[in-house]
Amino acid sequence: MTTINRQWRLRARPVGMPTAETWEFAETPVPAPGDGQVVARACWLSVDPYMRGRISAGPSYARPVEPGEVMQGGGVGVVVASRNPALKRGDIVESMAWGWQDYATLDPRGTRKVDPALGPMRHALGLLGMPGLTAYFAFLDVGAPRVGDVVVVSSASGAVGQVVGQIANLMGCRAIAIAGGAEKLAWCRELGYDAAIDYKAGTLREQLAAATPAGVDVYFDNTAGPIFDAVMERINLRARIVQCGTIDTYNRPGQPDVGLRHHRHMLVKRARWQGFLFTDYVHRTDEGLERLSAWLREGRLRYREDIVDGIERMPEALLRVLSGANFGKQLVRVSPEP
Ligand SMILES: NC(=O)c1ccc[n+]([C@@H]2O[C@H](COP(=O)([O-])OP(=O)(O)OC[C@H]3O[C@@H](n4cnc5c(N)ncnc54)[C@H](OP(=O)(O)O)[C@@H]3O)[C@@H](O)[C@H]2O)c1
Fold first, then answer.
1. Which of 155, 178, 223 to mutate to test the pocket of ligand 1 (most atoms within 8 A of CB)?
2. Atom of ligand 1 at shortest range from CA of 53
3. Given 24, 136, 225, 250, which residue has the most CB atoms within 10 angstroms?
4. How far is the CA of 1 from the centre of ligand 1 (A)?
5. Is the pTM of this model over 0.90?
6. How wide is the angle at C-alpha 210 spanned by C-alphas 207 and 213, nearest 5°?
7. E strand intervals along 235-286
8. From the CA of 223, how far away is ligand 1's center (Å)?
9. Radius of gyration (C-alpha) of the chain in whole angstroms
10. How far is the CA of 122 from the centre of ligand 1 (A)?
């Protein structure tokens, strides 16, 4: 086993879009586990939009990373040293508190032992992890879909969105994708979305009107911004709006998110707009995984991943997600799987 632990630490908080200089690469000795802890070697690290919020100082639902600290993030890998009787060397573990580093010291709380029978190890960061479970619980619990509902999903080809569309189909809904560019739209249609809208084409409202002649019953919003405004104009009586993400705002922290006011629509349509946070559902992980992995086994779910090789490329991978260059769940392959 190597004795070096490569890490990415926050150098300085960015203004606007981060750059490669936002973080610095460091090498430290591989740590030893404390009582009850394990040390695990990363095979895959996750790259997610929420990471932009973690390097801003503004108030959020989680503590921001301070300059000098290891960048926060999830990972999956192999236990190499254990002082926890429930986990032994060679076990596969996943944690959202991994950090951008080769070797993570993990507390029992927040560390999940991954069952390799459920799917490829990397799925623990995607379809069978935080993004897949977000899609599952946010859509089913907050979106409360009914057969025949028209469901619109923004960021529809991404880590969360591609799962929402497929579950909507499984629930007997009509699913409409909103994404950027022809390739992503084609993938959404392949997944079973009934229609796909390119919000970058400059005709969002016209495309939405054509795709949703009977209005929108569930809007699964990953973006906020102008896409939200356009969809809100089409909501039906008792529509449900799931606020899952606001990626359009992530690179403008501290600036007001100015758009249309939807109070009248909400009142007239007696609609419900509710925020969702994955961490509120962590205790239901087993229930979600059972259903998602069964659909995967039955061939009823597909999942596209976008893989970048090498821990050196973590900043680049996050910039891909924030600029829309990623196509599917963004992952970084750090070391070979056992
Ligand atoms: N609430 C929760 O617990 C929770 C959990 C997981 C994720 N989320 C949120 O869900 C959303 C999707 O996350 P994900 O992991 O599935 O990411 P993702 O969709 O795989 O990747 C991000 C995508 O966002 C789109 N995008 C970027 N800037 C945009 C903009 N200004 N306007 C519209 N679209 C833009 C890009 O796709 P296009 O090329 O299509 O523009 C990009 O590929 C994010 O907002 C994330 O924060 C929330």
1. 155
2. 47
3. 136
4. 37
5. yes
6. 135
7. 235-243, 272-275
8. 6
9. 20
10. 19
Torsion of CA 289, 52, 193, 121, to 10 degrees: -30
Q: Is the separation of the CB atoms in 212 and 234 below 8 Å? A: yes
Residue 108 corresponds to which tokens in the numbers above? 């029992």
What token pair was written down for 143? 């979106």
Q: Name the 3-class secondary structure at 279.
A: helix
Cβ(22)–Cβ(221) below 8 Å? no
What is the reported pLDDT for 1? 59
Q: How far apart are CA 141 and CA 47, in angstroms?
A: 25
> What spacing in Å lies between the alpha carbon of 113 and ligand 1's midpoint?
27
Average pLDDT over residues 188-196: 98
pLDDT at 255: 82
Q: Which two tokens stand for residue 70?
A: 């290891």
**How many angstroms is it from 107 CA to the middle of ligand 1?**
29
Give the C-alpha separation, 113 to 91, whole Å: 7
- Both tokens of 242, joined, read 């799931």
Query: Which neighbouring-strand residues pair with 220?
Result: 153, 242
Task: Report pLDDT for 187.
Answer: 98
Q: What residue ranges define each of the domains in the chain, with the CATH number in brackets? A: 4-126+304-333 (3.90.180.10), 130-279 (3.40.50.720)
Q: Which position has the token pair 């076990």? A: 91
- The torsion of the CA quartet 32, 105, 64, 139, rounded to 10 degrees, works out to 180
> Between vectors from CA 314 to CA 312 and to CA 317, what angle results, nearest 5°?
125
pLDDT at 270 over 90: yes
> Are 150 and 214 contacting, i.e. CB atoms less than 8 angstroms apart?
yes
Is the CB of 243 inside a 6 Å radius of any atom of ligand 1? Answer: no
Atom of ligand 1 nearest to the CA of 50: 47
329 CA from centroid of ligand 1 (Å): 10
Output DSSP code: residue 101: B
pLDDT, tens only, 29-48: 999 999 999 999 999 999 99
